């Protein structure tokens, strides 16, 4: 379908590297999905699970385990907006449930999403959907407008348990924090950001958890440059390129078939991202 973004919004995305806020669903539906997250994805966050602040597995690619998450990544309001930016043939490459507990010290340092994804060309768009209020106080995503126009920048892995990224990837360049723009969202709203736009988020100082889903969409023409063949989910249009093995949607909540698809997909993704150099070395 597409044509949900105005010409001005598309122009703003190309110029600034993001567009926000956009509405996917009303607060009632966002509240239902919030309850689904609490039911399905809370266990892995307990301290005794040993997962720390890094993202445990039900929070990575949950759309392969849970029908409600499969519905979210296929939601027409999100896909229509993504289609306006990347065209009608769309894959979900990755998804992370970003759960910052109330008062948690967890934070996300300045980074570009493309750094270790190993995707070419850089046509990937991240949709960040809020399931709770995401405000400056609760540590919403903050972007540096226009930073995507400078290409892939060098990053270094930061070994800090508070960092919520898989490798602690942090841009090495000085970031002009005074130019940073917070992008607050209400439950059911989403933002779209370019894979190369610098973004970060601060600890949650609010009395409530801040929960959102970061969904990585790519047009089917994008390929992965690493040696490991990866899987992805076709959510709209046709895949005429065959760069990825296509993943099956879950039929029942975390049943054996869904768990097998999820484990296979994450296993391949981890193997690829551990070995992929920064994209600055690839492009
Ligand atoms: O949720 C956050 O605070 C960070 C999200 C992020 O880095 C992303 O979606 O790419």
UniProtKB/TrEMBL annotation:
| InterPro entries the UniProt entry points to | Phytyl_CoA_dOase-like
Q: Give a yes or no for keyword Glycosyltransferase in this entry.
A: no
Q: Which residues cross the membrane?
A: none
Which terms are listed as keywords in the entry?
A: Dioxygenase, Oxidoreductase
Query: What cofactors are annotated for this protein?
Result: Fe(2+)
Q: Which GO terms describe its molecular function?
A: 2-oxoglutarate-dependent dioxygenase activity; iron ion binding
This protein is called Phytanoyl-CoA dioxygenase family protein
Query: What species was this sequence derived from?
Result: Roseicella aerolata
